[in-house]
């Protein structure tokens, strides 16, 4: 007699469910891999290449056509040059239509042909920085200035392409060696660490303080909670520029206030002096993000069982004892999750510092450095190298995060 | 330390410093005239008044009030808690004095409530300290939140000349009438801010719709279905949160430059939802998990397909969550700056944030910049205050994103 076995493997129903699940996820997956995964791979690729902002367009021939001189001396000129200073272009040709009313006086050079009114020239290969000039003496049969407009109005068609740095298979670690060799990199790393650690801790402590204030119900509690969220909800660009205005050394109210109160003798350049600027951007970070930790901590506080506090009251615990021995242990979970998340997010922050100081006066963090390298110095490869360093740091952080989160239920 | 005659004066002294500074800063910001808190005299006066509040119980309320009033009146001399400049008008003086006496009396009475003259129990002492910290906390947080926004609004209403003359003077000359809003009218007439407002608005709305379109099915699949790779998927969503925007913006910039999508609204609308889909997915799947499965199963038993279950049962049930997510996504899209800054160069296609960043140049007066900031802030604030309940819920549910 055969014994009954429980079904093994996944049944038809489970398979159908999985198929539907993947179908529902597919649009998201495709779009995210297009805009997140692909760029990440691209940035690793670029970081190994000497790629500058000018390489964004592959090298191409550039032509200028003009009708010069007058009478006997009238000539049609084509100036062709290679847009790149380094890279060669192969197979450069020019085709153009001669306007009616112009006839060539001399024979064409060897590499040019004229069929009907179509001019075709083959320039062959052009090295980096090469220029060529094609001068064709012509005879005008109608008004010269009208012809000039006509000649210069019809754009010649150019062909020819050079190798794009982006798609070639040549790699160099030059970006990384230059990055790690510079003293600047290590100072950038320290600034990032200072900003991240103090920005995160400050926002947490302030958030905890604010949550303690609002952890009781009174009239207007909702209003104050809303008010305290303002810094987070307002557009970063608005609040950052407000801070810049407020702390302006010449026309800022903060300086005027300090002078009037007798707290300082001369105006302070808050976002322009070396140690102060870094402290100010960290304070801004704390100011802008304390609402977030405040909201999380408050939500957790309000879900703590009140019977525990009642029991503590019965045992005669004082308010401070209740805070240290009951509230803090209860909040430790959310505090550490918040710390890790905020740490990662502060590490990633770009807009705030970029708007406040532009990375000057000793406030250049890693993320600002990506922008500086890629756009200010227009060396995209170097910027990509910094970005790769950031990604490696994040890989480390997220490893810690997931190790930790698996213990910490909830998020 | 835990004696009323020590606690009272110490708390009183510290509190008076807080009150004096607050009042001086408030009055300075309101009038622009000289108000200076004097720490030493504040400490002395505060200790004296604090002592009297523990010495004389509530029945002798008059003595307490008289002492507070004396402290306030001292501000007229040079040894008061607040030094008032000679050019200050009589009205401002009067307001300062009355406010000072009233606030001091009420707040100190609350802080030193039931604090006896003699030995305090641990509870009484800590309760008094906590009341002091609470008072300080409210003043501190309100000040740091309100001052920047106050400065933003008031600066936008001033003229360049007034600003340079006295950066502290934020009093408004009502006699200027509509001319007060000159910065705003100039922004709308000369800088095309109406166009930017509209661009920002429809980009944000489109972003919300596209995000929901992508994230609702995805979140449902992650929350309800069992399939291989489910856990890995929900983790990778969180992981995507952690990729900094600037790292993505660089290759996106390159790709958009090469395909000609840079400087086009289409490019922006393509890229914004991708930054918000992970957040929305994360928030929605948490909500879907909390919905009872029985309702959906009943629907399945009655012959609905999965998709119609989602459409007819799950979605109507999760309308509040959808509202939260929509608001949150709208906020992200409205406030987004980095991508707009990098990808848009053509002033006719600017979003509002990009438009405001254009105002940050030395040739454009400061009040225009601040007026731009106000224009960018007001709509999102109005939305936030109107729907605060949804917004806070949305923030706590999903604001892993900063």
UniProtKB/TrEMBL annotation, chain A:
It is a multi-pass membrane protein. Coiled coil: none annotated. One of its GO terms (biological process) is transmembrane transport. It holds the Pfam family BPD_transp_1. CDD domains: TM_PBP2. It comes from the Bacteria. One of its GO terms (cellular component) is plasma membrane. Keywords: Cell membrane, Membrane, Transmembrane, Transmembrane helix, Transport. Residues 189-401 form the ABC transmembrane type-1 domain. It is found in: Cell membrane. This is ABC transporter permease subunit. It comes from Parasedimentitalea maritima.
Automatic annotation (TrEMBL), chain B:
The keyword Membrane applies. GO terms for cellular component: plasma membrane. It is found in: Cell membrane. The chain crosses the membrane at residues 12-33, 39-58, 65-84, 96-117, 129-151, 201-225, 237-259, 265-288, 309-334, 368-387. GO terms for biological process: transmembrane transport. Keywords: Cell membrane, Membrane, Transmembrane, Transmembrane helix, Transport. The keyword Metal-binding does not apply. Belongs to the binding-protein-dependent transport system permease family. This is ABC transporter permease subunit. It comes from Parasedimentitalea maritima. Pfam families: BPD_transp_1. It is a multi-pass membrane protein. Its main location: membrane.
């Amino acid at each position: 007699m055969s014994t009954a076995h429980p079904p093994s493997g996944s049944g038809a129903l489970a398979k159908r469910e999985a198929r539907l699940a993947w179908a529902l996820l597919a649009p998201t997956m495709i779009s995210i891999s297009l805009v997140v995964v692909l760029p990440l791979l691209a940035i690793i690729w670029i970081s190994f290449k000497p790629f500058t902002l000018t390489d964004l367009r592959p090298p191409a021939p550039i032509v200028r056509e003009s009708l010069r001189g007058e009478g006997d001396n009238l000539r049609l000129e084509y100036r062709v040059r290679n847009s790149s200073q380094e890279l060669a272009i192969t197979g450069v040709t020019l085709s153009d239509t001669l306007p009616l009313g112009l006839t060539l006086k001399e024979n064409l050079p060897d590499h040019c042909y004229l069929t009907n009114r179509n001019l075709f020239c083959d320039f062959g290969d052009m090295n980096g920085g090469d220029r060529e000039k094609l001068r064709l003496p012509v005879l005008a049969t109608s008004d010269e200035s009208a012809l000039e407009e006509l000649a210069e109005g019809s754009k010649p068609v150019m062909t020819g392409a050079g190798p794009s740095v982006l798609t070639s298979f040549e790699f160099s670690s030059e970006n990384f060696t230059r990055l790690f060799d510079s003293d600047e990199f290590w100072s950038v790393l320290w600034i990032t660490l200072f900003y991240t650690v103090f920005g995160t801790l400050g926002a947490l402590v302030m958030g905890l303080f604010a949550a303690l204030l609002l952890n009781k119900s009174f009239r207007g509690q909702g209003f104050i909670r809303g008010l305290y969220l303002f810094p987070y909800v307002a557009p970063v660009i608005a609040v950052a520029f407000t801070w810049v205005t407020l702390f302006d050394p010449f026309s800022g109210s903060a300086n005027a206030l300090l002078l009037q109160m007798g707290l300082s003798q001369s105006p302070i350049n808050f976002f322009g002096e070396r140690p102060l600027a870094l402290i100010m951007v960290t304070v801004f970070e704390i100011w802008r993000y304390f609402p977030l930790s405040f909201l999380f901590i408050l939500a957790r506080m309000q879900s703590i069982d009140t019977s525990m506090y009642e029991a503590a009251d019965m045992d005669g615990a004082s308010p401070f004892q209740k805070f240290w021995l009951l509230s803090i242990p209860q909040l430790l979970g959310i505090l550490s999750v918040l710390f890790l998340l905020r740490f990662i997010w502060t590490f990633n922050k770009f807009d705030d510092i970029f708007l406040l100081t532009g990375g000057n006066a000793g406030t250049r963090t890693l993320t600002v450095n990506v922008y500086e390298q890629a756009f200010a110095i227009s060396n995209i490869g170097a910027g990509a190298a910094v970005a790769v360093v950031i990604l490696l740091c994040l890989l480390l952080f997220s490893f810690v995060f997931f190790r930790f989160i698996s213990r910490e239920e909830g998020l | 330390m835990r004696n009323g005659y020590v606690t009272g004066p110490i708390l009183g002294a510290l509190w008076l410093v807080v009150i004096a500074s607050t009042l001086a800063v408030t009055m300075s910001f309101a009038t622009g005239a000289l108000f200076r808190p004097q720490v030493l005299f504040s400490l002395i006066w505060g200790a004296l008044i604090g002592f009297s509040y523990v010495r004389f119980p509530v029945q002798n309320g008059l003595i307490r009030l008289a002492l507070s009033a004396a402290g306030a009146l001292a501000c007229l001399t040079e040894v008061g808690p607040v030094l008032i400049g000679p050019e200050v008008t009589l009205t401002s003086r009067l307001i300062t004095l009355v406010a000072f006496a009233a606030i001091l009396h009420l707040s100190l009475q609350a802080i030193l409530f039931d604090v006896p003259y003699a030995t305090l129990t641990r509870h009484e002492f800590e309760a008094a300290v906590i009341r002091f910290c609470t008072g300080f906390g409210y003043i501190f947080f309100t000040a740091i939140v309100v001052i920047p926004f106050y400065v933003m609004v008031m600066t936008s209403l001033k003229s360049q000349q007034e600003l340079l003359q006295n950066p502290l003077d934020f009093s408004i000359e009502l006699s200027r009438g509509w001319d007060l809003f000159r910065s705003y009218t100039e922004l709308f007439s000369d800088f095309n801010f109406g166009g930017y407002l509209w661009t920002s608005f429809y980009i944000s709305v489109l972003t919300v719709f596209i995000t929901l379109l992508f994230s609702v099915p995805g979140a449902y699949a992650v929350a309800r279905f069992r399939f291989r790779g489910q856990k890995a998927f929900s983790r990778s969503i969180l992981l995507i949160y952690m990729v900094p925007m600037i790292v993505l913006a660089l290759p996106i910039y390159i790709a958009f430059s090469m395909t000609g999508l840079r400087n086009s609204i289409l490019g922006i609308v393509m890229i914004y939802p991708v930054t918000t889909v992970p957040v929305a997915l994360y928030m929605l799947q948490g909500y879907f998990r909390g919905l009872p499965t029985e309702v959906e199963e009943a629907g399945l038993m009655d012959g609905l397909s999965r998709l119609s279950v989602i459409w007819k049962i799950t979605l109507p049930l999760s309308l509040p969550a959808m509202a939260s997510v929509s608001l949150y996504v709208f906020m992200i899209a409205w406030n987004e700056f980095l991508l707009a800054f990098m990808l848009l160069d053509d002033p006719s296609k600017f979003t509002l944030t990009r438009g405001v960043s254009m105002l940050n140049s030395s040739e454009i007066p400061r009040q225009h910049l601040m007026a731009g900031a106000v224009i960018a802030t007001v709509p999102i604030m109005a939305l936030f205050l109107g729907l605060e309940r949804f917004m806070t819920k949305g923030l706590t549910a999903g604001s892993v994103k900063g």
